């Protein structure tokens, strides 16, 4: 297995099927990747939506937590069953271009010295208006979306920190880039969904967790 795609979900019934189907609709061969969907004990209809998609002959592995544990724990649950040489996380309200997995994995296939790959984003709002966003390293650290890692490297770092509720990606990437080099692929293959008011949500907690991570990882 080449790639494990992790899709985490908490109360995203309106968006989760879009995320899953975008991962299914890829130009890379079906046998080269798996999709692992982890529902973090959603209280809406998310789990029923996930189940309605099914496993499609084993292409999708679905797991539901028995209690809400946070996105870091959900990501680690997926990592614990991931079979792929590479791993990439797609948030349950985001989605990806059909060439995303092929293009990202090609960089890792032919460059052993590269430890992770990230690219540009299209920011999509609730009216489906799209805006190209150049994904500098600073932006990557802030949102952590659409990064393909070598699975063995993520596991060597202990996976995602579970104590952070809003900055688990920031923590992992901060630790990761101290040990492994990355590659910036200048293609906007990740669709970052921006809900109304999402930028200000949990802003204070995000800043507190960022400061703690910076202190611990420096």
Write out key terms for the chains shown.
218 residues; alpha/beta; 9-stranded mixed sheet; 8 helices
Word description of this protein:
The protein has 218 residues and is α/β, with parallel strands linked by helices. It has one domain (3-217): Spore Coat Polysaccharide Biosynthesis Protein SpsA, Chain A (Alpha-Beta Complex), CATH 3.90.550.10. Helix content is 34%, strand content 28%. It is built from eight helices and nine strands. Strand 1, helix 1 and strand 2 (33-39) form a beta-alpha-beta unit. The longest helix has 15 residues, at 203-217. The radius of gyration is 16 Å and the shape is globular.
Query: Number of domains in the coordinates?
Result: 1
Distance between the termini: 35 Å
Topology pattern, helix = H, strand = E: EHEHEHEEHEEHEHHEH
CATH homologous superfamily heading: Spore Coat Polysaccharide Biosynthesis Protein SpsA, Chain A
**Strand share of the residues?**
25-35%
**Total strands:** 9
Please, how many helices?
8
Structural class: alpha/beta
Helix content: 25-40%
CATH topology: Spore Coat Polysaccharide Biosynthesis Protein SpsA, Chain A
* Coarse shape: globular
Residue ranges: pLDDT <50 for 5 or more in a row?
A: none
What is the name of the CATH architecture?
Alpha-Beta Complex
Mean pLDDT: 93
* Oligomeric assembly: single chain
Question: Rg, please?
Answer: 16 Å
- Main sheet properties: 9 strands, mixed
Per CATH, the class reads Alpha Beta
Give a brief rundown of this model.
By secondary structure, the protein is of the alpha/beta class.
């Amino acid at each position: 297995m080449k790639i494990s795609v992790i899709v985490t979900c908490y109360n995203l019934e309106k968006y989760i099927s879009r995320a899953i189907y975008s991962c299914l609709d890829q130009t890379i061969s079906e046998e080269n990747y798996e999709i692992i969907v982890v529902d973090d004990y959603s209280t809406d209809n998310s789990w029923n939506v996930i189940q309605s998609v099914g496993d499609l002959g084993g292409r999708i592995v679905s797991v539901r937590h028995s209690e809400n544990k946070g996105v870091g724990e959900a990501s680690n649950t997926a990592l614990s069953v991931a079979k792929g040489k590479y791993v990439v996380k797609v948030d349950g309200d985001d989605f990806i271009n059909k060439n995303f997995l092929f293009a990202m994995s090609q960089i890792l296939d032919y460059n052993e010295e590269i430890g992770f790959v990230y690219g540009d984003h299209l920011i999509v709002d609730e009216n489906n208006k799209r805006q190209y966003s150049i994904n500098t390293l600073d932006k990557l650290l802030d949102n952590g979306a659409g990064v393909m890692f070598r699975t063995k490297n993520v596991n060597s770092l202990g996976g995602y920190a579970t104590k952070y509720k809003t900055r688990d990606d920031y923590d992992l990437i901060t630790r990761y880039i101290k040990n492994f080099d990355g590659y910036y692929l200048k293609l906007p293959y990740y669709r970052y969904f921006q809900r109304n008011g999402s930028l200000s949500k949990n802003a204070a907690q995000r800043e507190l967790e960022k400061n703690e991570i910076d202190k611990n990882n420096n």
